[in-house]
Amino acid sequence: MSPSPNLFKVEQTNQRSFSRGDLVIITGLAVLLYVGTRLALGSPAIVAGPDIILSPKALPVYTSFSVGRMLAAYFLSLLFTFTYGRTAAYNLRARRIMIPLLDVLQSVPILSFLPVVLLSLSAILPQGIAVELSSILLIFTSQAWNLTFSWYQSLTTNPKELREASTIFHFNNWFRFKNLELPFGSISLIWNSVMSWAGGWFFLMAAETFTLGQRDFRLPGLGSYLQAAANRGNVQALTWGIITLVVVVVAIDQFAWRPLLAWTDKFKLEMVESDNPPTSWFYDLIHSSRLINWLDRKVLQSFSESVDRRLLRLSPAVYIPEQKDEDWSRSTYLAAGVFLTVLGYGAYRVVLLLLTIPEADWAQIGAGIVATTLRVAIALGIALVWTIPVGVAIGTNRRIATFLQPVVQITASVPATALFPAFIILLINLPAGLNIAAVLLMLLGTQWYLLFNVIAGAMAIPQDLKYTSKMLQVNGWQRWRTLILPALFPFIVTGAITASGGAWNASIIAEHVQYRGQSYYVTGIGALIARSTAEGNYPLLLAATLSMVATVVLINWLVWRRLYRLAEERYRLE
């Protein structure tokens, strides 16, 4: 019996090039950053936050503050994901703006949001509330983008027969979301939620302790505790903080992520039951509880049905037609004209500010872009080499998954920034030690985006396709070429896009670090952004940030956007 051909749909693809929408997005972002720069230059000094107590007795309270901020940022990320991703998936005109915008947003360093977010909120809110909301929004920027990309990818790769079935049954938007979109995308969404929390932990120290020129901001929390312990060289406090963080990560894994992964296994698109479904002792405990089952029947199901009835009355059944362009109205042209006029004036002011930057600074920016690009490429290459085979092993082999899945979930959630002082001590005296440390920290902060997407993709491969490949004697490399890699391709692309963006973001922390009152940095655009932020050199911060964004967007146009289009059109499972 001859081996089967590729089991996935193959189509010709058309590549999009640079568009006017991309230009508008980049210009708008430049203007927004310029506004933040002007606010920073003209803002008064802001009093620093409270001193951080390094006693272990303070850890329970600090931990509760940090977990609360993470939860608030995560629910805000989910709301953004469902709204933004669905609009981009079903509205062709909006997609042309929203997906490039998402590419740009994930490439903007978290520290570059500080002047815009913090100083804008401080102008309209009391300082304490403004700093707290700023911290939540900064954590949001480390969680939302990969969730949105994952959700968008699941919506655009929904099998055609399921979409047709939802139309036949006259699903409205709510029923379509509840019975088709959310179940189909749930596995990828949960794995990316794990990664979002890991990303939030990674940037927690930056979100709870940061400096803008002479202004020092601190919030009581686990991240600020770890940062203060590292800055003071207090190894005992740093150890207690890391232990506390690991305990919190393990608890969240056991009581949230593993039960959710076990529950979402029933949504896999397959006709045969899986040989290695994920398990959770806590999920089994809840599932066997009579009280929980009674609450589910009497309360949750009744509440769900009442919500369904109300939303059905408010939103009747709809049909989502094939996407096509529509002519703009006169009012739309007028609004677009006003917007472009304001945008043009803002761009003019940006150019005037950039012209004040010395040539020496531009030379630093150019050298930094080249150096950081090389580090990102090395980190992403190393991640691809090991995450694909390991992710497939975890996603397809129950015995391996039982041992490795909790290990990688816990390891990914422990922020490498908390361990970075140890890397500095070990590598500082080696040749190119700081460069090795920078690549290592970027790798530790971004490889999990790839791994979790590969695991989600491997788990989502239908069992009947696995049986079919065995029946046709498709083994070894041919099995990888015809089944595994085509099935994983959309997930690999999604993971690589978010990992690449995460690596650029992580460069700010990886290329510039403070330990025991001393600053260590290497040549790189991330180090330049961190130093200009700390020194209050906002024109240089604007120029460095825009240069990084332009570089990342160029890479997205040349590489990731083409691969994403290929994943959407050629490797749809149907």
List the helices and strands and how they pair.
Blueprint (H helix, E strand, L loop, with lengths): L19 H23 L16 H32 L1 H16 L5 H12 L2 H30 L3 H9 L4 H30 L1 H5 E4 L2 E4 L3 H11 L2 H30 L16 H7 L2 H25 L15 H25 L4 H38 L1 H16 L2 H12 L5 H27 L3 H9 L4 H35 L1 E4 L2 E4 L3 H11 L2 H33 L4
Antiparallel strand pairs: 1-2, 3-4
Helix pairs in contact: 1-3, 1-4, 1-13, 1-21, 2-3, 2-5, 3-21, 4-5, 5-7, 5-19, 7-10, 7-17, 9-10, 10-11, 10-15, 14-15, 14-17, 14-19, 14-20, 14-21, 16-17, 17-19, 19-20, 19-21, 20-21
Characterize this entry briefly.
The protein is mainly alpha-helical. It is built from 21 helices and four strands. The protein has one domain.
- Runs in which pLDDT lies below 50 for 5 or more consecutive residues are 1-16, 321-326
Beta-strand residue fraction: under 5%
Order of strands across the widest beta sheet?
Answer: 1-2
Tally of contiguous helical segments: 21
- Number of beta-strand segments: 4
The shape, in one word, is globular
Main beta-sheet strand count, sense and barrel state: 2 strands, antiparallel
Distance between the termini: 24 Å
Provide a descriptive summary of the structure in words:
It is a single chain. The protein is globular, with a radius of gyration of 24 Å. It has 21 helices and 4 strands. The protein has helices spanning 20-42, 59-90, 92-107, 113-124, 127-156, 160-168, 173-202, 204-208, 222-232, 235-264, 281-287, 290-314, 330-354, 359-396, 398-413, 416-427, 433-459, 463-471, 476-510, 525-535, 538-570, and strands spanning 209-212, 215-218, 512-515, 518-521. The protein is mostly helical and 574 residues long. Helix content is 76%, strand content 3%. The strands form 2 sheets. It has a two-stranded antiparallel ribbon. The protein has a two-stranded antiparallel sheet with strand order 3-4. Helix 5 (127-156) packs across helix 7, helix 5 (127-156) packs antiparallel against helix 19 and helix 9 (222-232) packs antiparallel against helix 10. The chain has one domain (20-44, 53-288, 358-570).
